[in-house]
Amino acid sequence: MTAPSTESALATESAPNAESAAAASAPAVDVFDGHNDLAWYLREERDYSVEGLNDPAVSPFTTMDQLAAGHVAAQYWSVYVHSSITGPDAVKATWEQIDAVQRVVTAYPERLAFARTAADVRAARTAGKVASLMGVEGGQQIDESLAVLRSFARAGARYMTLTWSTTHSWADSATDEPVHGGLSAFGREVVAEMNRIGMILDLSHVAPTVMHQSLDQSTLPVLFTHSCAFGLNPHPRNIPDDVLDRVPDNGGVAMMTFVPSFVSNARREWVDAGEQGTAPEVTVAQVADHCDYVRERIGIDHIGLGGDICGVDELPTGLGDAGQYPTLFAELASRGWSQTDLRKIGFDNAMRVLDAHEDAYTAFLGYADDAPSLAAGPGASAGAES
User: Fold this and answer.
1) Is 335 inside any structural domain?
2) Beta-sheet pairing, 130-137 with 72-78
3) Nearest residue to 169 (alpha-carbon basis) of 138, 200, 192, 147
4) What is the residue range of 135's domain?
5) At 258, is the pLDDT very low, low, confident or very high (cuts 50, 70, 90)?
6) Is beta strand 112-114 parallel, antiparallel or unpaired with respect to 130-137?
7) Could you tell me if residue 277 is left (phi over 0), alpha (psi between -120 and 50 degrees) or otherwise beta?
8) How far apart are CA 286 and CA 315, in angstroms?
9) Domain assignment present for 35
10) β-pair type (303-305, 253-256)
């Protein structure tokens, strides 16, 4: 979820015909997307109703058919809670978000499969369903409790973004005043516990100090689930070059997002100047520029996609909903990206990070290696939880 600004909530248009044709002719590439805010959209716009989610009039940015058209094979559904909601209320609101994701998956069993483990993701993909994982978007949502953190992880929240857009009691945000010089002592405890239980660190939204301190401490690969490259657009939400340069040694993945102000320098400047006049257009080619930049700087093995779909009111031309990832792959292919390259940015790199956490996570859950998968459907044994 992107912090609200005064940026206009302009209607997203469909991709132009040329881009649609290019997407249709592009090789199919599966997507493991890092961030979709459908659950918060359902809270704000639908009173948590999960009916009609194959109707663009009901859910304009993410429908079941759009997920299929976009070849979305796995999705981290954000269980975001606005940082104005704090304390026990934040914990309660997070459980409501988790419940919303679980209800969506239950309502569309032919299309979606709930997933906690890497094995679940593979089983869902084999079955032709969207593996549905979750990510907590903001460390304030645990209310300074490692027990709450663990409870979210058991429920299937596989990552936590250490902050949202505001600094909280144990970590500094990239878009707020620093208080802790990065992570507090408790913040470092959170990082250690996330490593222990196999919960992925998400370093989008956090201050660069937190990025560096987390990379110093973490023994497992990190994600940046929805950010772009600061070197192309100096938005505070984007990843600085000195942080990007450390990602290969960690084994992590920087997932490029579609948020217009993060993608386009001109759009960022227009927002900063008060949004006077017509907003500069943001295009799929500009998203591809960020993909090129990160690939050239740190290598093809450390880049992925996290659209922040449903988390913004407008998306780039050609990437207007969850069905239009092929437009980006067509653009990248036109720039010389191989099919292997596209598979890595689309799915394989994100899957590798999840795999790296599998041993710690399944040990935390108490799974045996041959435990039945949740993706097998109702009735499958979840194993004993610790």
Assistant:
1) yes
2) parallel
3) 138
4) 29-366
5) very high
6) parallel
7) left
8) 12
9) yes
10) parallel
